[in-house]
Design goal:
26% strand; SurE-like_sf; single chain; 6 helices; alpha/beta; Stationary-phase Survival Protein Sure Homolog, Chain: A; two-stranded antiparallel sheet
Length: 257
């Protein structure tokens, strides 16, 4: 990062009017005025790393630096880097603040995390931020507000390796109960977080909702699930390279001539 105030692209998957992205812009403006907000025009939670390839992407410019996009979080990152932000690329992409957790395997579904992943693919440092909570309770946005600025400013000084992005989760508690900030590994919950629920409409035609019900378990010392239980902010460095190197020797033997 240069010594000048950074150029920041803010995206999310909860939509451009979501409370988390409004809060995030307020936090980022504490240390830079070069802020651009490019986000979906409506909620796109669960969009994952999808992009729009079979229909046009419509953009509505709200003012000089705010754009509502009829597309996915990945679309928003691509548009910001390649077209909508003039003169030079952003120094960092900050995605969120998501309304809900992006822990463990959540990142494979998360539009919030995937926008940060797209930043890594574009060679730009990127951070995904999420506020953990459990419905019907409301998110403790004060916790994200209390810690997000410190987290972002420190990560701006980090050594960013190619293909790296960072996933941040703020715990489900008031800020005064937070016990610290911890660097964590990615956890993995037991199977069964998502289940299709069958309904029948008024014309007797079946349809489905996907029910989200995270099973207990998967937490272990040092992972993001345990940090959430311990009321700690988790900082999880992730990478694009998903190769399972421990499995390679066995596969080498299996396919050896």
């Amino acid at each position: 990062m240069s010594a000048a105030p950074p150029r920041v692209l803010i995206v999310n998957d909860d939509g451009i009017d979501g409370p988390g992205i409004v809060l995030l812009e307020k936090i980022v403006r504490r240390f830079t005025d070069d802020v651009w907000v490019i986000a979906p025009d409506e909620e796109r939670s669960g969009a994952g790393h999808s992009m729009s390839t079979y229909h046009p992407i419509r953009v509505r410019q709200r003012d000089e630096r705010h754009f509502a996009v009829k597309g996915t979080p990945t679309d928003c990152a691509l548009l910001g880097v390649h077209d909508l932000i003039p003169d030079r690329r952003p120094d960092i992409i900050v995605s969120g603040i998501n309304r809900g957790p992006n822990l463990a395997e959540d990142i494979t579904y998360s539009g919030t995390a995937s926008a940060a992943m797209e930043g890594a693919m574009l060679g730009i440092p990127a951070i995904a931020l999420s506020q953990v909570f459990r419905p019907p309770n409301q998110p403790n946005w004060a916790t994200a507000e209390a810690f997000a600025g410190e987290v972002i400013e420190k990560l701006l000084r980090a050594e960013w390796r190619p293909g790296m992005f960072v996933n941040v989760n703020f715990p489900d508690c008031p800020p005064e109960e937070v016990r610290g900030i911890r660097t964590t590994t990615q956890g993995l919950r037991p199977p069964g977080a998502f289940r299709p629920i069958r309904r029948v409409d008024e014309r007797h035609i079946p349809y489905y909702w996907i029910k989200i019900e995270h099973p207990e378990g998967g937490h272990a010392p040092g992972n993001d699930l345990q940090a959430a239980l311990d009321k700690e902010v988790s900082i999880t460095p992730l990478q694009l390279d998903m190769t399972d190197r421990l499995a390679m020797p066995g596969l080498d033997r299996l396919f050896a001539d």
